[in-house]
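Researcher: Re-running this chain for the archive, since the previous output was lost when a drive failed. Same request as before.
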Amino acid sequence: MRNLQFESSRDGVLDTENSLKEAAKHLKSVYWKRLSILGPKHLDTVSARRELIATNCTLGRWEPTSDLRGQDSIDSSSDGIKPHKEAVNNLGSKEWGRIEAESHAIITSHEGVAGKCHPETLKSLLWLLQVKVHLQNVEYADKTLKEGLQRIRHASVRVERFLESIDLELKFALAVSKLGKQHEVEALIIMKEAKYAIEGLSQAERKTIGEGIDILESRTSDDITELSRSVVQTRLDRQHKLQEKVKVLEHDGRYREAATCQTEHWKLLAATRGPYDARAIDAHIRVAQLQLSDTEKHDKENGVLLLKEIKTRYSRALLETHILLIAEIEGKDM
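Model: Regenerated structure tokens:
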């Protein structure tokens, strides 16, 4: 698995040890000035706190932001400081526990001051996801990804700040892709949904957004191409096996396990053929069908919720060829 390379969320990536040290020194000064003048809860102070922690992580060091007063330099002449991915692994579990706690506190502060969909809040949520991915906390990373996508795709962000929305969506996808093969599939679906959103813009909308949309579209295509190389091989290895396994499990009445396998089958189709491909949509509907076939109340409820999500997620035109299947499922549910 590729190591997570921590990057500051500011424009431009600092890729040398010396420039990172200078950045950390500058950020510490900025953070302390804002803390002294604006106070600890001010939006700009909280953002500087996040940037300082992120840059320190990239340098492979931990300095609690509460202990920075009176320190003249971030560089305490420690030996063995390495930039980027090697340095990240220099931090021990104790330091990562503190980084994790600080990152949660930053999110809470940003949400309290600016709301859940503010640009700085979303950057902090992305940083928290990167931390969770590095710690291999899959459950919380999945939860953070889901929450992040809901916020990014909210009308207040997607419509009013389209470029920012797509840019963040790609960054969230790239972050979670580092959790392994299954999450690479998840990331590819997200990227293709972002590409679909860009392609859905009218010429007038593209003109209003500006030339940045062309750059972002090109970057989206590049990210998809790079990640697809890994996912296509996964699909070839798994697709047939999954389909056969679903049939066996369904025949045996093991609907929960069948739905789990069908979910993986759907994600592979969505990642390789596209999330709005007819076969992918059909596979998604089948997940709900299997959940509703289960005798367990909890699974049936999940099936009902998924069917509602499907009818919201896809347009009427896309669902037109699946009307009979949906009607059949809803009829049995009633």
